[in-house]
Write a structure and sequence with these properties.
17% strand, 25 helices, 786 residues, alpha+beta, 33% helix, 5-stranded antiparallel beta sheet
C-alpha cells in the first residue's frame, strides 16, 4: 500500500490541462510574432511614426511674388503690416469657448464683437461669409491693420489674451498703379482649406499646401499661383509627451515666389477704365426713344489688344470693386455688396464672362461667309428698308433704304437687309425647312472658323464660350427646353415669349429662316464675349492670324533673372482670301470716314490720313432690355473693343470713349494734332523690363505729363460699394497728340483656323438655363435688328 496521496486527476482533467497549455503557448507565440513584426520586420516604419509623434512643424509663410505691368510697375505686391491672429485651439480651451477673450480683443481693436466672432468661426455649408475657410489649427487673422499701440496692449497683457498674437507680417497689396484698378484681372487670395491641406499632405514642394498658405482664387493670382506662391519655410521642433519643446529636428528657410511680368500697361489701363466709366455715365444721361427713358448702362467691358501678338494691353470690366477688400478676410457687409443681385455682380470679368449678341460687329464674319459660299465681292445687293421672311418683317435699323449697294457699302452703313437676303438665299440653298443631308451652313461654319462658340484660351480662369446657334446647338437646346416650352404654350398667353414658346414646342429643333437671317446680323441666339471680338479684329489688322489672348509675358525670379518667357501662340488663320481681307480692311476704314462711326471719329477731328483706324459698329437688341452698344476697332497696332449693356447704339454709346483711348495711345488732341511726346504707347512694348541686382524692376519715367487741373478732375478709382450699378465718374480729357503711322500693310494667309474647344459641346446647357444666367443674369437672347 502506497503512502502517496491520491491526486484526484482524471483523464478529463488531463485533457483540459493539455488544451490550456496549448492555448497559452499559442498566445505566447502570437505575442512573440507580433513583437518581431513590430520591432524587427517593420521597425523602420514604426520608428518614423514614433518620431513623428514628437515632432511639431512651425510654418513660416513665403513672401508671394509680385505681379508687374509691362514696364515693371507693381500691380500686386506685398507690404508689412501688424497682423493680430487668434488660435481657435486656445480659445476652445477656455471655459466660455473664448467669448471673453474675443470681447476684450474687440475692445482693443475698436471692432464690433460680432465682427471678431464671425472672423474666427469656421466656414461650412450653413455658415455664410465672413468665416474662416482655412485650417482650424492655423492662427486666424482678425485684422491686418493693427496699430503699434494695439499690438503693445495685446502683448503686454498676455494673460488677458491667451492664444492671441500680434506680429508684423507681409500681406498682399493691390497697388492701383497709375490709378488703375484691374480687380477682375488680378484676382485675389484666400487661405487654403483644411480639406486642401489634407489632400496634399503626402506631397512635397509647391504641390503641398500648408496651413499658413494663401492661394489665388481668381484672376492672374489663380492661374499663376504656383509661380507666385513660393515655398513656405518649415521648422521641425521636437517636443516631449507634454508638448514642451526639447530641441530642433530640422529647418528649411522659406523661398520667395517668382514675379510675373504682364503685358498690361498701367497707364493705358487707367485710361480705358476711366473712359468706360465715362461712356456709361454719359449713356445714363441719354434719352432712349424706344423705351422712353434714359439708358441704364448697367455694365460694360473694354479690351485693348496688341494685334501682332494677342497680348492684352488693357482690360476693364464694370461695375468693379477694390481687390484689397479680400486682404485679411472680407467683411460680411463687403461680401454682400459684391454678391447681391443689386450689386450687378462686380466679381464677374465681363471681358471674358459677359456674353451678349454682337449685333452688326458680326457682319465681318457674315461677309466672309457669303464670299466663301460663292457670292461675289464685285456684285451689288439690294438694301431695302425691310424684308418679309417667314411671315415676319425684318427691318433695317431706323428703316433706311440704300438701294442696290456693294458689300463694302453694306458694311460701312451697316445695312441689315443685305445680310438678311444673303442668309435667306443660303438657307434656301441648304434645303430650307427640310435641309439637305449635308447642308453647307456657310455662316455657321465660318463663325466657328473665326473661333466663336469656343474659349479663346486666355490665361484667366472661368472664361465662357459664347454661342454659335447652329443645328447641333438647336437640337440640344430643344431637348433641354421642350417640356418647359410646351408647358408655357398650354397656358395660352399672348406675349412675345409665349408665341416663341408655342412655336418652339412644336419644332424648336428646326433651323428656321428667321434663325438664319438673325444670325447673319449677330442677333437671335448668338452670343460672343469682348475678348473674342478683340481677337477677330486683331486678325483683320495683322494680316489674318488669330493669336491666343495672353496677359502674362514672363516669369522672373526674385533676383530678376528670367525663369521662362510666355511666347505668343497662333491658333489659326483667317478663313478667306487675301483679296477678301483687303476688302474688309477697306470697308472698315470707310466706317470711320463715311459710315456709322464717322461722326465720332472723322467728324470729331481724328487724323485718319495720318493714323488710319478701322471700325464696325453694333447695336444689339435684347428682349425686354435696351439695346447693347458694341464698337469694335483696330489700328495697325491695336484692336480696341468696347461694349455697354443697355448703353444705346454702337457709335453713340462707345464712340467717344474709344476715340479718347486712341488719342491717349497715340498722343492726339481733340483737334487732330499729334504730339509723340504725349503718346502713352504709340508702339506695343515688346521687350521685358530691366531689373536691379536686388530684383526690383527699373521703371522708366512716363513720357507724358498730366495737367494738375485734369488730375484733380479725374474720376475716383471706384464707385462706393453701395452704388452697385455705378462705375466711377467722368474720365479726364486726354492730352495732346501722337505719331503718324503708315497704313497697315498685309500679307494675307488663307487656311481655316483650328481653335480650342472648336465645337459647341453636346452636353453644354442651352442659354436660358441656370448655368448662363449665373454668368450674365440680366441677359437673354436678342432678336430683331442689328
Amino acid at each position: 500500500m502506497s503512502n502517496i496521496p491520491e491526486t484526484g486527476r482524471t483523464r478529463r482533467v488531463t485533457i483540459r490541462l493539455v488544451v490550456l497549455q496549448i492555448l497559452v503557448l499559442s498566445l505566447l507565440a502570437t505575442l512573440g510574432g507580433r513583437l518581431w513584426y513590430l520591432q524587427i520586420r517593420n521597425a523602420s516604419v514604426y520608428t518614423a511614426k514614433a518620431t513623428g509623434n514628437h515632432i511639431r512643424e512651425v510654418v513660416e509663410p513665403a513672401v508671394r511674388g509680385e505681379i508687374l505691368d509691362a514696364s515693371g510697375r507693381i500691380l500686386a505686391g506685398n507690404e508689412a503690416r501688424l497682423v493680430v491672429s487668434v488660435s481657435r485651439t486656445s480659445l476652445l480651451q477656455q471655459r466660455d469657448g473664448g467669448k471673453a477673450v474675443l470681447g476684450r480683443l474687440a475692445d482693443v481693436l475698436g471692432m464690433p464683437a460680432k465682427d471678431v466672432q464671425e472672423k474666427v468661426r469656421l466656414c461650412d455649408a450653413k455658415t455664410p461669409q465672413p468665416c474662416w475657410n482655412g485650417s482650424p489649427y492655423q492662427p486666424i487673422p482678425v485684422t491686418k491693420e493693427a496699430t503699434t499701440q494695439q499690438a503693445m496692449q495685446i502683448m503686454e497683457r498676455r494673460e488677458d489674451f491667451p492664444g492671441v498674437t500680434a506680429q508684423p507680417t507681409a500681406v498682399r497689396r493691390y497697388t492701383g498703379a497709375e490709378g488703375a484698378n484691374m480687380a477682375q484681372v488680378l484676382g485675389y487670395l484666400s487661405p487654403v482649406t483644411d480639406e486642401e491641406v489634407s489632400k496634399t499632405a503626402s506631397k512635397t514642394g509647391l504641390d503641398r499646401y500648408l496651413p499658413a498658405d494663401q492661394i489665388g482664387r481668381a484672376g492672374l493670382e489663380s492661374v499663376y499661383d504656383r509661380d507666385l506662391r513660393g515655398t513656405a519655410g518649415i521648422t521641425q521642433l521636437e517636443v516631449d509627451n507634454l508638448g514642451r519643446v526639447i530641441g530642433t529636428a530640422g529647418a528649411a528657410a522659406p523661398q520667395t515666389g517668382n514675379n510675373l511680368v504682364t503685358s498690361i500697361d498701367a497707364r493705358v489701363q487707367k485710361v480705358v477704365e476711366d473712359n468706360l466709366a465715362q461712356a456709361m455715365a454719359d449713356a445714363r444721361k441719354t434719352f432712349d426713344k424706344i423705351t422712353n427713358r434714359n439708358y441704364e448702362a448697367d455694365s460694360g467691358a473694354a479690351v485693348v489688344m496688341d494685334v501682332h501678338t494677342g497680348r492684352i494691353v488693357a482690360m476693364a470690366s464694370a461695375p468693379t470693386y477694390d481687390p484689397n477688400l479680400w486682404v485679411g478676410g472680407i467683411t460680411g457687409k463687403d461680401y454682400q455688396s459684391l454678391t447681391s443681385k443689386d450689386s450687378n455682380f462686380p466679381l464677374l470679368n465681363r471681358a471674358i464672362q459677359g456674353q451678349s449678341a454682337p449685333g452688326s460687329t458680326f457682319k465681318v464674319v457674315s461677309t466672309t461667309a457669303a464670299v466663301e459660299a460663292g457670292y461675289s465681292l464685285d456684285g451689288t445687293y439690294a438694301c431695302p428698308k425691310a424684308m418679309t421672311i417667314g411671315g415676319r418683317e425684318f427691318k433695317n435699323f431706323e428703316s433706311e433704304n440704300f438701294g442696290s449697294i456693294s458689300l463694302e457699302k453694306a458694311l460701312e452703313v451697316s445695312c441689315d437687309t443685305v445680310f438678311y437676303g444673303l442668309a435667306y438665299d443660303q438657307w434656301m440653298k441648304d434645303g430650307g425647312i427640310k435641309p439637305k443631308k449635308e447642308p453647307g451652313d456657310w455662316f455657321f461654319k465660318t463663325a466657328h472658323q473665326f473661333g466663336l462658340g469656343a474659349k479663346t484660351g486666355i490665361d484667366l480662369p472661368s472664361e465662357v464660350t459664347g454661342r454659335v446657334p447652329d443645328r447641333q446647338w438647336k437640337q440640344s437646346f430643344y431637348d433641354n427646353n421642350k417640356d418647359a416650352w410646351c408647358a408655357q404654350a398650354q397656358k395660352g398667353g399672348t406675349s412675345f415669349s409665349d408665341q416663341i414658346a408655342k412655336e418652339n414646342c412644336v419644332d424648336g429643333y428646326q433651323m428656321r429662316a428667321g434663325d438664319a437671317v438673325n444670325f447673319a446680323i449677330g442677333q437671335g441666339d448668338t452670343l460672343v464675349t469682348p475678348v473674342q471680338m478683340a481677337r477677330i479684329y486683331s486678325a483683320l489688322a495683322n494680316g489674318g492670324t488669330f493669336y491666343r489672348p495672353t496677359i502674362a509675358k514672363a516669369v522672373i525670379s526674385p533676383s530678376g533673372d528670367l525663369v521662362r518667357e510666355i511666347a505668343p501662340h497662333e491658333d489659326g488663320k483667317f478663313p478667306g482670301s487675301q483679296k477678301l481681307l483687303s476688302y474688309i480692311d477697306q470697308a472698315t476704314a470707310g466706317v470711320i470716314t463715311g459710315g456709322t462711326a464717322a461722326w465720332k471719329f472723322s467728324g470729331a477731328g481724328w487724323p485718319q490720313n495720318k493714323i488710319e483706324l478701322h471700325a464696325k459698329t453694333g447695336t444689339a437688341e435684347v428682349e425686354g432690355k435696351q439695346t447693347t452698344s458694341w464698337l469694335t476697332t483696330y489700328s495697325k497696332d491695336y484692336a480696341v473693343v468696347m461694349t455697354i449693356s443697355q448703353g444705346g447704339t454702337g457709335s453713340g454709346g462707345s464712340g467717344d470713349a474709344i476715340r479718347r483711348i486712341y488719342q491717349a495711345l497715340y498722343g492726339v488732341d481733340d483737334k487732330g494734332n499729334i504730339d509723340n511726346g504725349k503718346a502713352l504707347l504709340p508702339v506695343p512694348q515688346a521687350e521685358l523690363p530691366k531689373f536691379n541686382p536686388d530684383g526690383t524692376a527699373i521703371v522708366k519715367p512716363a513720357a507724358y505729363t498730366v495737367d494738375p487741373a485734369q488730375a484733380a478732375a479725374a474720376p475716383a478709382l471706384l464707385a462706393p460699394l453701395d452704388q452697385a450699378q455705378g462705375v466711377p465718374g467722368p474720365a479726364p480729357a486726354f492730352l495732346d497728340p501722337a505719331p503718324a503711322f503708315l497704313d497697315p500693310g498685309s500679307a494675307f494667309l488663307d487656311p481655316a483656323p483650328t481653335f480650342l474647344d472648336p465645337a459647341q459641346p453636346n452636353d453644354r446647357p442651352a442659354l436660358g438655363t441656370a448655368a448662363d444666367a449665373a454668368l450674365e443674369p440680366n441677359r437673354g437672347p436678342g432678336r430683331g435688328r442689328a
